[in-house]
């Protein structure tokens, strides 16, 4: 049978209700600290010049971070364009991250961690978990992205590769890479500045079939505030 037409805005499934922590319009209360439950996501509207501080309370949790240009959601934070702009496969404090139109969208203002993040790996999705041997539906970052946007009245037009905050993917001289636990610590944070009106989307990655969220621990919550 032919595959049904692909709809990038439609989640592949769900294991339970989805609760976006910010109001339905996506506009946060400034300085209020919000919690993103383990395995879920959140979309928040950012004005140019505002900063979002993202916290890793347990230290082991990866965040798949996406950003879209508010009002023109076909323009999005693009890791392939960021690699070209930066000339490297790792990010660091003060880097400016760009869109698929090569325009500046996000600045890494501050990073309390060791600075180990990833801009190579696609977000997890239902097909990835099937390849890893999962039976039935598994929570995933692609669906967290879609459901977070739907919660504030937007539809995903594409699922970009994310900025994988605190994800540890070492690359060898041969070009091979491995999946390793984070080196971040409890309470680490990263501050991200919106350089244009944007929608920031964060997913507390549900990956529990590789070590990227730590060994012997479960995926955990994230926290953030906007100022």
Question: Can you summarize this structure?
Answer:
With 227 residues, the protein is of the alpha+beta class. The protein is built from three helices and ten strands.
Written overview of the protein:
The N and C termini lie far apart (51 Å). This protein has three helices and ten strands; from the N terminus they run E-E-E-E-H-E-E-H-H-E-E-E-E. It has one domain (36-226). The chain is α+β, with helices and mostly antiparallel strands and 227 residues long.
Overall number of structural domains: 1
How does the overall form come out from the CA principal axes? Answer: globular
Number of strands: 10
The helix/strand order is EEEEHEEHHEEEE
Mean pLDDT equals 96
Strand content: 15-25%
Helix fraction by DSSP (H/I, runs of at least 4)? 10-25%
Largest sheet composition: 6 strands, antiparallel
What is the first-to-last residue Cα distance?
51 Å
The whole-angstrom Rg is 16 Å
Q: Strand order across the biggest sheet?
A: 1-10-3-8-6-5
Structural class: alpha+beta
Q: With helices defined by DSSP (H or I, 4 residues minimum), what is the helix count?
A: 3
Instruction: Please mark out the parts with pLDDT under 50 across 5 or more consecutive residues, or reply none.
Output: none
């Amino acid at each position: 049978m032919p595959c049904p037409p692909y709809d990038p805005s439609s989640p592949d499934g769900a294991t339970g209700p989805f609760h976006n922590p910010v109001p339905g319009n996506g506009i946060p209360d400034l300085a209020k600290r919000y919690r993103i439950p383990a395995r879920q996501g959140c979309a928040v509207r950012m004005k140019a010049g505002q900063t979002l501080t993202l916290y890793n309370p347990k230290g082991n949790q990866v965040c798949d971070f996406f950003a879209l240009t508010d009002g023109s959601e076909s323009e999005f934070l693009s890791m392939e364009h960021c690699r070209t702009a930066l000339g490297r496969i790792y990010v660091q404090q003060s880097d400016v991250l760009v869109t698929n139109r090569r325009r500046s969208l996000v600045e890494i203002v501050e990073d309390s961690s060791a600075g180990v993040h990833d801009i190579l790996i696609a977000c997890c999705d239902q097909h990835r978990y099937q390849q890893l041997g999962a039976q039935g539906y598994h929570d995933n970052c692609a669906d967290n992205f879609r459901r977070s946007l739907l919660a504030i009245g937007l539809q995903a037009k594409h699922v970009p590769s994310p900025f994988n905050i605190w994800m540890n993917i070492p690359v060898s001289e041969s070009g091979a890479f491995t999946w390793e636990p984070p080196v971040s610590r409890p309470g680490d944070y990263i501050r991200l500045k919106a350089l244009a009106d944007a929608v920031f989307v964060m997913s507390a990655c549900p990956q529990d079939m590789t070590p990227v969220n730590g060994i012997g621990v479960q995926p955990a919550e994230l926290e953030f505030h906007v100022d």
